[in-house]
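To: structure subgroup
Subject: Chain for Friday's discussion

All,

I'm putting the inputs and outputs inline so they're searchable in the archive.
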Amino acid sequence: MEKNTFCLRIKNSFKLGCVEISIDNDLKVYAEALTDVTVIALSLDECRNYLLKDNKFLNIVIYEMAQIITLNMNYKVITSSLPERVINYIKYYCSDNIVRGVEKTAFKLHCSDRQLQRVLNDLENKNIIQKCGKGTYRLLSSN
C-alpha cells in the first residue's frame, strides 16, 4: 500500500488505520492477515477532511480505538516482563492455550527468537508450560 493510506478492515470488527486518520505523519503499521480479509484502502491525502466530517465514520473509529486500548490494557500495559507477556499471549490470544511457531510469536511479542526461546525453556522448567512439539507449547491448566 502506498504512503498515507487509510486501511479499514470490515470483517471481524478490527480496523487498521484508526490512529493514522487522526495524526498527520508517516506512521508505519506492520500487520499480518491470518485469514481472508476484506479491505478498503483510501488515500488519506485525498479523503482525510471528508472522513473527519462524517460522524458515523468517527463513531466507528472511536469504538475501534476503545477496543485497541482495552486489549492493550489487558495484555501489554499490565505486564512488563517478557515471561508475563508470553503467558498472557498464550492465555488470551492462542486457541486452546497453545502457541505455535517461535519465530512468528517472537515478532508479535516484539522480541528476538532467541529471547523467546529462553523464556519458553524457563517456563517449561517451572512447569508453567509444556512443550508439545517443535516450536509448540501449551499453557498448563493451573496457570
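Points worth raising on Friday:
The chain has a mean pLDDT of 78.
The chain is about 45% helix and 15% strand.

D.
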